[in-house]
Amino acid sequence: MDVHLLVYDLSGGLAKQLSMNLLGFQLDAIYHTSIELDNVEYVYDGGINTIHPGSSHLGQPLERLHLGKTQLPLEIIVEYVDSLRDIFTAEAYDLFRHNCNNFSNDLATFLLGHGIPEHIRSMPQAVLDSPFGRMMQPQLTQMVQAKKAQQGGLLGIQSDLRSNPNAAASGNHLTVQTNGHVAPGTVKVAHNLQELDALLEGAKKSCAIIFFTMASCGPCKMLYPSYDQLAAEPDGKATLIKVDISEAFDVGQRYGVRATPTFVTFLHGKEQERWTGADGARLRSTANMLVQLAFPVHLHQSLNLPHFASPEVKPVLYAKVPPLDKLISKMGGTAAGDPAVQEIKHFIEIRAKAGPAQATLPDLERFSEFLRSAVKDLPVEVMFTVVDLFRCALVDARFSGYFAEEAGHKTVVTVLDYVNGQAQCPYALRLVTLQMTCNLFSSPLYPHQVLAQPQLRNPITQFLSTSFLDYCHHNVRVAASSLLYNIASSNSSKRREASGEILPEADQVELAASVLEAISQEESSKEALHGMLLALGYLAYSVPLESELVDLLKTMDAQGTILAKKKQFPEEELVDEIVASSRRKKPMYGPYGTLHTPRFRDIIDAICETLTAINELPMETLHSDTMRTVRSSASTPSLRSRDGTVPSHMTKMDGGNVRVVVRVRAFLPREIQRGAECLISMDPVTQLTTLHVPNDSDPANSRATTRKVLDEKSFTFDNSFWSHDIEDKHYAHQEDVYNSLGEEFLDHNFEGYHTCIFAYGQTGSGKSYTMMGTPDKPGLIPRTCEDLFERIEAAQNETPNISYHVRASYFEVYNEHVRDLLVPVVPNQAPYYLKIRESPTEGPYVKDLTEVPVRNINEILRYMMKGDASRTTASTKMNDTSSRSHAVFTIMLKQIHHDMETDETTERSSRIRLVDLAGSERAKSTEATGQRLREGSNINKSLTTLGRVIAALADPKPRRASGKRSKDVVPYRDSILTWLLKDSLGGNSKTAMIACIAPSDYEETLSTLRYADQAKRIRTRAVVNQDQISTAERDAQIAAMAEEIRVLQLSVADTRRRERDQKESEERLEEYQNSVVAMQRLMEERSMVSEGKIRSLQTENEALRLHLKLALESLKNPIPEVVVNTKPAREGDETDKENMNPDGGKDGELVDEAYFDEDGEYSSEVYEEKANDMQDYMYDLLKDLSLFRRKISDDKDRFLEENSRNPLGVRVNV
User: Which helix (H) or strand (E) is 1113 found in, with range?
Assistant: First the structure.
């Protein structure tokens, strides 16, 4: 690609005119430069911007200099420019020292190996060195700051999305950027059956969606933008195809398409689902779920391993700068004085003192040549000084980016080969070379080069293997583990992407074997062990289970090797969960290997959990037989009757109170350890729950014992579940909770009611266990799903004229934001939060929430597990696995009964909403800080609002003195949770509350029981959600909708016609105005020509007047007669004879021979003839002059008359 330098003159030519007088030297322009590459202009002003060349308000450039050609791929160039955005920021812009010319120079150096012309780059410094420049510097700086504050930059140039360089990298300059990245996928168009078969064959290993459309289909056109956008969202993993059946008749016949839009999905080459209609939400949710099924999540990603699952991993860099003068003095006289060394030294010093923004890249080609010659010229004892100088400079991303794209990596490979070739490599040289190699990762361009290029990867692998064997110097092992950490984390990031890992498997096996051997031998350095464990973890995390690396880890007993390290470091505490600080987006090591986070015991646990998952079999699809067998004893749903009739009492409003049950959990290990007492007792007959007074021995209840009044509290609920002592005969199992509560509410769902069950209580009280349970003890939600599909299967066998449709959704409320748990989290991107809307009929709902169709228990359990894995959890002092969000799992059940005799259709819709609330907590008890403290604050806020809503619904305001009831204000909208549960708490729903309490905490348990006691008084207004339509009504509705569609189509056609007429009128008006302007311009030109002609004729007239005047004067004053002397000359007069000519006349006399006849006599006739000729000539001249005057007068009158007319289109007042 050609690289051009665009040069602008900000002075508009004034610099060339005034510079000599003001500055004392000639300055041709105030240079503003940018780089043009592949029809994109890269310019630095208020940040790095990309525009179309010459499209800014500066106009076209003054010069367009061709700097050369680059062979770098555009993707690499774009990535390098992105890495410069942290250096060339709006705040770092300096008119004299860090401006657009510095950016152009650095980018040109990266692309071509040389910068921009020196007179352009040094222009600001030359101005600043002049007296006038120093005088004007404060005013100019103040002006620049004002411009930056006003318009974001000195010139106010903003990026043009149409010139997106990422789009250029994909071959399309007009593709709009999405979050800094171009859409990787596009919609494929199949014109015939052969093309469609080829596209489906290419998607056999993944998934595909076919969109059947027609050019005349209005709803189809509405979905085109969404479908095009959807093609890019699943990271290019799904193949989205569009087929116009009006052209591809053979495709429509094969797939039996009768209406548009129709969608058909394919998974691994097999058809999965088909539907018709313009349902954008269903299309989006189905596409996302299809990608999840085609590319299942690795089993490691279901583990709680934030060390390795975090996509934000920064490399380990060694940025400490030693005393450069002392370092260079050790090189020796010749090398120390080399200009390349001095330039690098100056660059490092400026960068260390003033920051990267003020440091201009030196001549990198010269330094590269110096490095390659140094390995030959310098002794091995001082070679470490050159490598260390190289290390210090490589910290800069611009510097390392240049060497990342060097042909053959000849400089870095030369250094590595030199070190690898030393039989006894000095300690200092090995250490700084390891650190230098770590600093290669400062540029985002180098990881790919290290992993993919064998000429660079092979010497690094060899160097690492030998460095791990240096048992004498732990600093070498620390640096080696840092380098391996950089390589492994980079490969792990690539492994998560769709392109897959790029480090060859053979190298992974070699590196893993080396680090396992080093771990087994490490006995002294905790820092080195930290780095080795982290590197091994990234090598093993999400590795394909069929790879050779898995076999190596099993063969070398990697798990046993790591577990042995726990015994060698007994002074460290055992930490079961990874500390929250491990989520920080900081490097794991400091500049020289100092570890900030985390402790190595946490990493040992995480590595062991990863290796344990590797040793186990791959996770298979969860089947219903893996769960505990649960048989429903509930009554048969009413719709399972053959006639499908609805009892009369169900068609009316069914008012009822919220059902409240309470459940107490068993002691936790920490409660047993402190000797806590159980403060709860329950009567299984009367359902009475009693909270007893705590004693003084339990420190957890010290706050409660300071109360002035402390007595027993008793509450009566609908059910009291004693789950404290499993040996008790009244112990309530998970099955008992479901049989008492879940079955009844599932009956209500089949009857057509909305239902809601939510668990409430403090953190660690057993809410998640009650709702979700464990694989061997499933909770309320999985049991409800299993029983649901068992009933559907039984009903379909008994009454085939009833069809059932089940859909599910799963979301969480985290920090007052709604996040879809069925949508996978995209690495390196912020979570996408959904918006809440409220419908007049349906109430509050979540916009764009994924609702997936489910057909059996296996599918719904798979979605549930996927959502659970995405849910936000963390460890606190109160709970090892604390839910940091409220989770809502919703099942939509639609039952359609068609009566064959009456041709009537009855449709019932019900919703099962199962809510797992996060527990209330006190910061003092949980000792939460930072993010955990913010999460707890939002949890408490939502639960406090829930309590206020419960109080407002349970105890309405009393009547006022006037006898009129005041309007109750229920604070639903004070929290996202209560807003979403508005319909469940006080609307169209049958609701149950499970109050989960801890057996030993008096204060928290009392608060929970009081809330539950209030909730008993809430009364809902549940109704059957049923539509019964006869044939006549259905036909009438269809006819009405068809008429409405026809009216809308006519309206749309009329609107389009008006828009078309308006557009045509505007075009005619514009054409008329252009004609008027052209005529006016023509008249002006003709007027100017006429005036010129008039002036020319006037000049010619004056010349003729003068000529005529002279002619008249010659007539008035004719030439006098010539007197000829006829006397003969005297004989003695010698003088006269000498003066006489041969013809007898004198020399000097003016005698016209034309007036003499042949005899020498004077003839008057000749004179008269001449006079007559002159008179005739003057007469003709006067006649021509008269005609000429008349012509001038006529032309003047005509031109004046034309100029006095009004232009066409100008209104004249009459």
Answer: helix 1031-1116
Q: Is 761 known to sit in a ligand binding site?
A: yes
The first and second tokens of residue 532, run together, are: 């080795």
SS3 689: strand
Q: Which residue has the higher pLDDT, 1173 or 1201?
A: 1173
- On whether 1075 is known to bind a ligand per the annotation, the reply is no
Instruction: Output the CA–CA distances (angstroms, integers) from residue 31 to 119, 388, 756, 950, in the order listed.
Output: 10, 37, 70, 70
What are residue 795's phi and psi, to 5 degrees?
Answer: -70, -35
pLDDT of 265 strictly over 90: yes
Do 1019 and 988 touch, CB atoms closer than 8 A?
no
Q: 809 or 1213: which carries more pLDDT confidence?
A: 809
Question: Is 500 assigned a ligand-binding role in the annotation?
Answer: no
Residue among 298, 238, 294, 292 nearest 863 (CA): 292
Pairwise CA distance, residues 913 & 889, whole Å: 6
The SS3 call for residue 239 is strand
Q: Please name which of 405, 391, 400 lies closest in space to residue 433, comparing C-alpha atoms.
A: 391
CA 66 to chain centre: 34
Q: How far apart are CA 571 and CA 579, in angstroms?
A: 18
Axis crossing angle, helix 548-555 with helix 558-568, rounded to the nearest 10: 50
Kind of pairing between the strands at 852-854 and 802-814: antiparallel
Q: What Cα–Cα distance (Å) separates residue 1061 from each residue in 196, 1050, 1068, 1069?
A: 41, 16, 10, 12
Instruction: Determine whether the annotation assigns residue 987 to a binding site.
Output: no
Tell me the C-alpha to C-alpha distance, in Å, between residue 229 and each of 213, 222, 339, 847, 1098: 17, 13, 54, 17, 75
Report the SS3 class of residue 257: coil
Greatest pairwise CA separation for the chain in angstroms: 188
Question: Tens digit of pLDDT for each residue in 1141-1167?
Answer: 444 444 444 444 544 555 555 455 666
CA atoms within a 13 Å half-sphere pointing along the CA-CB vector of 832: 15
Instruction: Phi first, then psi: give them for residue 266, nearest 5 degrees.
Output: -130, 140
Q: Is 385 annotated as a binding residue?
A: no
Q: How many CB atoms lie within 10 A of CB 1152?
A: 11
Cα–Cα dist 799/643, whole Å: 9
> In the chain, count of helices (H) and strands (E)?
43, 30
Indicate yes or no: pTM above 0.90. Answer: no
Query: 165 pLDDT exceeds 90?
Result: no
Residue carrying the six token digits 């800080």: 929
Cα separation of 374 and 419, whole Å? Answer: 13
Is 269 labelled as part of a ligand binding site? Answer: no
Q: Output the CA–CA distances (angstroms, integers) from residue 1171 to 432, 1094, 1154, 1165, 1178, in the order listed.
A: 119, 35, 13, 10, 11
Question: pLDDT by residue (tens digit) across 500-543?
Answer: 567 888 888 888 888 888 888 887 777 888 888 888 888 887 77
Task: Give the C-alpha separation, 1113 to 483, whole Å.
Answer: 114
**Contacting residues for 562 by C-beta, under 8 A, at least 6 apart:** 519, 533, 536, 604, 607, 608, 611
Beta strands at 659-664 and 990-997: parallel, antiparallel or unpaired:
parallel
DSSP 424-442: T--HHHHHHHHHHHHHGGG
In this structure, are residues 532 and 480 in contact, taking their beta carbons and an 8 Å threshold? no
**Main-chain dihedrals φ then ψ at residue 276, nearest 5 degrees:** -125, 135
Q: Is 1021 helix (H, G, I), strand (E, B) or coil?
A: strand
Query: From CA 944, how far away is CA 924, in angstroms rounded?
Result: 18
Structure-block tokens of residue 1113: 């004067």
**N-terminal to C-terminal alpha carbon distance within the chain:** 67
Question: Facing residues of 35 across strands?
Answer: 5, 42
Nearest residue to 82 (alpha-carbon basis) of 120, 110, 116: 110
Torsion of CA 1114, 1119, 1120, 1122, to 10 degrees: 180
Treating both helix axes as pointing N-terminal to C-terminal, what angle do 364-377 and 397-404 enclose, rounded to 10 degrees?
70
Q: Could you tell me which residues come within 8 angstroms of residue 82 by beta carbon, excluding any fewer than 6 positions away?
A: 180, 444
